[in-house]
Amino acid sequence: MPRCPVCQSKYVPNKNDYCPCCNWNLPPYPFPMGWIPEIVQKENIRLAWAKQIWTAFKLAQERLKQVQMQLEEANQRASQMKLLLEQSYQERSAFAETLHKQEARLALLQEQLHQSTQQMAQLRTELEDIKQERKHKNAIIPHFQLQKVSCSLKIQEFSFKVVTLNKWGQPINCSINKAQYFQEHLGNNVFLDMVYIPAGTFLMGSPEDELNRESNEGPQHPVTLQPFYLSRFPITQTQWKAIAQLPQINRYLNPDPSNFKHPDTPVEKVCWYDAIEFCARLSQLTGHSYRLPSEAEWEFACRAGTTTPFHFGETITSNLANYDGSYIYLRIYRRDRAHKPSEYYKYHEHKHSIKDKVPWDHAGHRYVR
After folding, report:
1. What is the span of the domain harbouring residue 90?
2. Do 84 and 109 fall within a single domain?
3. DSSP 235
């Protein structure tokens, strides 16, 4: 079967006048012998030109295919870029929303900071006023209070025994001291003894080499205090009940909160706010100003001029204080153990005639006038 001289496609002679592929006019080949040479030459020229056109056409087709492939790849890349762009838009929207929330939170924090700054400034002003008031009281009021107490209440004097122990827990000294006090009548034949604590300077805190010392007990530093009155004993359940039955000032007081029931044992199961309310009601009842002692006042009264770990010496025994005697301090070991608070009158006093058997102190469960 002959082929087209241009595109080399097969065709059927005497049936196809034109090539089905390139549409070339198919003359009878081979040329008849009767054709004149000029016609043959022209036909050959036309054939050569047609072959060049076909070759260029095939190259253009190949180039078109390549361009189409590149266009598809470009479309795919464009789709990927579009997807990435949409994701970036979503991330940007999420980031913008988060940023808006953070800005709102920052504005709220700034407002809170501004309010806190104002409150801090107000507290600083109040603190300065309190410092000035205390400075004024320390300079004048203590002597005036003592004179007022001396005039309005009966100052009494009592004697008490002070025992000193060595590191073995053995008594090495026993002296008789005297102290002044007055009584506040709480009603129903209930009294509160207030002992006079003279002015003085002491070293607050404990030395670094003291046994069982804790980190919050230092550094030691000198503190000077003006005279004041401190309750001789921890507040008993009877005294608490007498004050708790008075009219409420700021908060309710449970008349019988203690777990260990006894009229002469210290009151327990009360919080700091209850102690503040107790002081407020006691002040209203007596007409005198009562408050909880400061840490310095509390330690000054407890030390009573001593520098040893305990006011009665270098160690502790359950004969002198109500505590868990099964624990060792230095070389002292006693198996007797206190399981509950005891009556206020059962143990020895010290130089300031203060007895301490309180299960837990709110700056001391004693009350200062």
Report:
1. 31-139
2. yes
3. P
Q: In what order do the strands lie in the sheet with 190-197?
A: 156-165, 171-187, 190-197, 228-231
Chain centroid offset of residue 17 CA: 100
What are 257-312's pLDDT values in tens digits?
999 999 999 999 999 999 999 999 999 999 999 999 999 998 999 888 888 888 88
Asked if the bond preceding 37 is cis, omega within 30° of 0, the reply is: no
Question: Distance between CA atoms of 104 and 140, rounded to whole angstroms?
Answer: 53
* Residues 124 and 173 both lie in one domain: no
**What average pLDDT does the segment 64-68 reach?**
92
3-state DSSP helix/strand/coil percent for the chain, to nearest 5? 40, 15, 45
- 204/261 Cα distance (integer angstroms): 35
In the three-class reduction of DSSP (H, G, I as helix; E, B as strand; rest coil), residue 155 is classed as coil
Q: What tokens were used for 366?
A: 């004693």
CA distance 97 to 364: 55
Provide the token pair at 10. 């097969």
State how many domains the chain has.
2
| Same domain for 298 and 243 | yes
Residue 216 and residue 94 share a domain: no
Check residue 35 and give left, alpha or beta (phi > 0: left; psi -120 to 50: alpha): beta
- Please tell me the distance from the alpha carbon of residue 121 to that of residue 117, in angstroms, as a whole number: 6
Residues 6+ apart with CB under 8 A from 304: 311, 350, 351, 352, 354
Chain-centroid distance, C-alpha 317 = 40
Hey, what are 349's tokens? 């006093």
Q: Is residue 255 within 8 Å of residue 278, measured between CB atoms?
A: no
Cα 98 from chain centre: 26
Backbone angles phi, psi at 72, to 5 degrees: -60, -45
Q: Quick one: DSSP state of residue 221?
A: E
pTM: 0.55
Do 169 and 315 touch, CB atoms closer than 8 A?
yes
**Coil, strand or helix at 165:** strand
Domain-terminating residue out of 93, 116, 139: 139
List Cβ neighbours of 361 (8 Å cut-off, separation of 6 or more).
298
